[in-house]
Each structure stands twice: as structure tokens, then as C-alpha cells.
Amino acid sequence: MPEPSGSAIVHLDPGQWKKLKDRKITFSAVAPATLETGLAEPGMRLVSGVGVLDLTGRGRLGFKGGFRLQDTAGAFVEVTDPSGMLPRGSATCLVRTSADGGGTRMELFDYSLDVTKIHVSPLSAAFGIDEAVAKVNPVLAKVLTDLFGEGAGTAGTTFAQGSVDFGFMGATP
Q1: Which residue, among 162, 132, 165, 173, has the nearest Cα to 53 in the 3D structure?
Q2: End-to-end CA gap in the chain
Q3: What is the distance between the alpha carbons of residues 50 and 68, in angstroms, rounded to a whole number?
Q4: What are phi and psi for residue 65, nearest 5 degrees?
Q5: H-type helices in 67-166, by residue range?
Q6: Cβ distance 93 to 108 under 8 Å?
Q7: Which of 54, 35, 52 is nearest to 44 (CA)?
Q8: How far is CA 101 from CA 19, 94, 96, 98, 144, in A?
Q9: How far apart are the C-alpha atoms of 49 and 11, rounded to whole Å?
Q10: Is 75 helix (H, G, I), strand (E, B) or coil?
């Protein structure tokens, strides 16, 4: 099976962004991810997508880069190098905070993809996912609360939404 290579565009959910913005928390991309400014809410383009997938979109994916949230006092969390199984599961990420500069890999986001939003194009050896939603899990809620105060993240609420596009390197239609 060929290895896919791809990218994802992810934007913070409007409700989550309001919680963070009200606390004067900034959002930035961590390289090699780049900042996306096409919507009212900040976002990022994750690149260097790798993984193992079948042509139905089942398998595992991972990306390099991520995002950083930081308040005016200098407290921060960096969430990078997400990986997860498709079509449902939890995304694990490397989490580095102002309290733990070394970083720890943690499960942060829960998701379940609507299979009608997965589109596969066998002739062009590509697939994509539209309208993917990442929900705050209890671990992320605790990280955000510990750093930025009560209500900065609530388990079960939407954190971000995005889309994924992958092509299969070396695939032949």
C-alpha cells in the first residue's frame, strides 16, 4: 500500500476562540505549520502529513508542526505533531507548556468523522475529509484550565474544525 502525503487546514471553533480571546490569549502556528488567516478565527495549515491508509480512508495519520497559545504573562502551551486513527478516535500530540518545557505526548482531542464527509478518488489516488471536528477531551481541558484559568477549555466542546487532503505517493490509478 502506498504511503499518503498531505496537509490539513484547521481553524479554532468560534466559541473556543472567544474563550481564549477574552483571556487575551494569542494563537500562533509552530513550524512547519503555517498560520491561516482566511476566517475570523485563527488557524493553521499542517503539512508533512504521513501515515498508512487504505482507499476507504481507514488507517492512521500524522502531521508535523502545530500551534501555540500564550497569555500576556507568558504562560503558554504548544501542541504539535498530532497523530490519530481514522475514522474515529483520539488525537495524540506533543504538549509543551511554560511549566513543562520538555514536553509530553498526550491524548488531547476526540473525534468521530462522518463517513459521508470522506471523499476518495481512486483514479487520481487521492482522498480528503471535509468538516472534521476536534472536541476538547478532559486532558486538554485540564491543561488549558491549569494554564489560563477556569473555563479556558471545557471537555466535550468543539475546539477546532478543519479539512484534510491526501495524495498517495507512488500510487498508480
Answers
A1: 165
A2: 13
A3: 22
A4: 85, -175
A5: 138-148
A6: yes
A7: 35
A8: 24, 11, 5, 6, 16
A9: 17
A10: coil
How confident is the model over 49-60, as pLDDT tens digits? 886 666 666 778
| 127 contacts 119 by C-beta, under 8 angstroms | yes
Q: Give the count of beta carbons closer than 10 Å to the beta carbon of residue 3.
A: 13
Kindly report the length of the chain: 173
Residues 6+ apart with CB under 8 A from 85: 59, 60
3-state class percentages of the chain: helix first, strand second, coil last, to nearest 5? 15, 55, 30
> What's this model's pTM, rounded to 2 decimal places?
0.86
How far is 146 from 136, CA to CA, in rounded Å?
A: 14
**Averaged pLDDT, 100-116:** 81
Helix (H), strand (E) at residue 18: helix 14-22
